[in-house]
């Protein structure tokens, strides 16, 4: 879900503010203050039970911008705990498999009805492997978008590409923040890029899809579900001019935490890996009366295509 305010605050039970040791910026208990130069948080995947933005219309509308016709994906694992094999468990290998099998999958196909100034969203994903940065994260609670962009630019350097999507997986727990992940955009060395931020979701019931079939750990299953959410929104609304409804909800926002009875939430990717991922909103399904219900009972969610 989109956030336009210059300052976003999720105040915890203890209240108060702390100072970011990296630059002295005053931050809220659960999120840092967005500076005017920060790009907005898009596709904010809210945790279970958090209120969703009101939408006066069901269909998504195009806002005059580009989409991602194809995508180069490079995950970044950031934080000291990623060097601890016991803590890491199956998460790096699992997300490596997730992104490696995403391209051409029926799940990726749930985004392809949307188009922009540069053509149609496609299912093509070039997976360029992951990058590991075991330096300490530079935020206390929830980061500014510019902090995550700076990490992407540091790690990717001159390798940034305009259709690049760089999901940043940190070892920071969610604590009191009301969301699991978000995506945004910016520039690295003058090259436009798309990126996303993810908390560590180990033992986090608010972001747990309750996967009972794949054999993945809870932490990996949670990251995989929100990874599908942010990827889908990054390709359909990469730079704040794509597809979202009158309440600001993007295609994955509208189907968050909706697991309709009889729907196929477990999907198989092209490399044979299997995942539990929420559906995405389809204008075509809603308008044709063929979709499955979201949390508001709107019949527009699809799980494969």
Topology of helices and strands:
Elements: E1 17-19, E2 26-28, E3 42-46, E4 61-62, E5 70-73, E6 76-78, H1 85-88, H2 91-102, E7 115-116, E8 119-120, E9 124-127, E10 131-133, H3 145-156, E11 164-173, E12 179-188, E13 191-200, H4 218-236, E14 243-244, E15 266-268, E16 274-276, E17 280-281, H5 283-288, E18 292-293, E19 299-302
Parallel strand pairs: 5-9, 5-11, 6-10, 6-11, 11-13
Antiparallel strand pairs: 1-2, 3-12, 4-14, 7-8, 12-13, 15-16, 17-19, 18-19
Q: How would you characterize this protein structure?
A:
The chain has 305 residues and is of the alpha/beta class. The chain has one domain (17-253). The chain is 17% helix and 25% strand. It has 5 helices and 19 strands. It has helices spanning 85-88, 91-102, 145-156, 218-236, 283-288; strands at 17-19, 26-28, 42-46, 61-62, 70-73, 76-78, 115-116, 119-120, 124-127, 131-133, 164-173, 179-188, 191-200, 243-244, 266-268, 274-276, 280-281, 292-293, 299-302. Strands 3, 5, 6, 9, 10, 11, 12 and 13 form an 8-stranded mixed sheet that branches. Strands 17-19-18 form a 3-stranded antiparallel sheet. α2 (91-102) runs parallel beside α4.
Give a quick summary of the entry.
By secondary structure, the chain is an alpha/beta fold.
Please name the defining characteristics of this protein.
alpha/beta, 19 strands, 17% helix, 305 residues, disordered N terminus, eight-stranded mixed beta sheet, 5 helices, three-stranded antiparallel beta sheet, globular
